[in-house]
Amino acid sequence: MTAPTTACRGPVSRRSFLEAGSLALGGLGLSDLLRGRAAAKETTGLADDTSVILIWLQGGPSHMETYDLKPEAPIDYRGECNPIATAAPGMDICEHLPMHAQVADKINVIRSISHGFANHAAGAGRFLSGYNPFKLLDPLGQFPCLGPVVSKMLEGRRNPAMPRYVADSSNVYGGGSASLGPAYLPFVVGGDPNAPNFEVKNLSLSPAIKDRLDDRSLLRKAFDGLNREIDQSRVMDSMDKYDREAVSLLTSNKAQNAFDLSQENPKVRDKYGRHKWGQRALLARRLVEAGTSFVTMQMQNPSIPGAIGNWDIHAVNGHLFDDARARLPVFDQAVAALVEDLYQRGLDKKVMLIVSGEFGRTPRINPQKGTASKVLQPGRDHYPGAMSVLVSGGGMQTGQVIGSTTAKGELPKDRKLDPNDLLATIYRFLGIDYAEMVPDNNGRPVPLIPFGTPIRELL
Questions:
Q1: Which residue ranges traverse the bilayer (predicted)?
Q2: CA-CA distance, 402 to 417, in Å (whole number)?
């Protein structure tokens, strides 16, 4: 849409109106984002009001230091962390996750997911899209990934007063919307939710503008620029639809309240932890409770003394076990509080929680000289051959350990699963037909995932 050279008549200029709706999506305005979805196929009927929270552990967490310890393995495999018993019989986890242990009856741990891509971008793209990437280093991936797919497939089926897809950054590394286009990228929440001055910018209009939005003629003028001589009635109806959706979100008290952490009980905020990860987890709960369908919150760059930025703990990056001792208690508090909160608030049937990264770490420890420490220290490298995923809520039976790995944590031993099986489970829970076709980058129709079956233990 070409911007006019003159302002609209009245006290509200088109420029100020559109700037009010601008989101942190590479300059994409809210109204433009919503209008860009006009080419998508309209869906009819309402899906069940279900939501998914993805806690994404960029870099790839070690299964051997979290949910799949091997105390009987040789020392160069098992490392320094010890397992502890949990509230779920038979589910032992890392000693640095004691709060997880207390809520273990409300979680499932999948230990037997694997795939074949050991590169961060390729691994994330494979895990989140279900397709083998053909450009291994592409940070955006080549196939539509989970969040954008949900945003597209639930279009028109959820309350427009809440964004369908929210994330703390525009893209997970290796993920993206690919052929679906930027219209299905997330509503981005930047910054640190634990910061005293945290706010979500550009979510509301000024009172002067908001008070005049019931003036239909003004609203039409605020969104001018269409060629009204071409198929005027049909195009204008379509334009009105997306403008109304933009205004609905911008003027929604529901959305503004969901993002406002200051409204939360201080004791609840303390329970999650007054740190970036804890408050991101709490924000995710507030969003799905208000009606957002899919939320991605990344737990990386924790600003914790002794922990490196993400979960990519090669020896050159950091000391594996020192990092675990610093990182895992913060992670433990945030995730355990989220699990407990979902159940206490009666959201456990409405909301499915997924905690995962793109792959696991090499079962055998690889000591190297640290880039910063200049001394020999332990680390683990990229490893897609085995990984652990935590799943909670979703109305499922919990307290289960699903699958297992071999004695040294190298490969799935039983109940071997693919990331596509998890994707099929998530899509089914959200009421999305994972056999539905979408165009690939060449315009050819392909299914949301090429194969995969919902995990029966999670149904």
A1: none
A2: 10
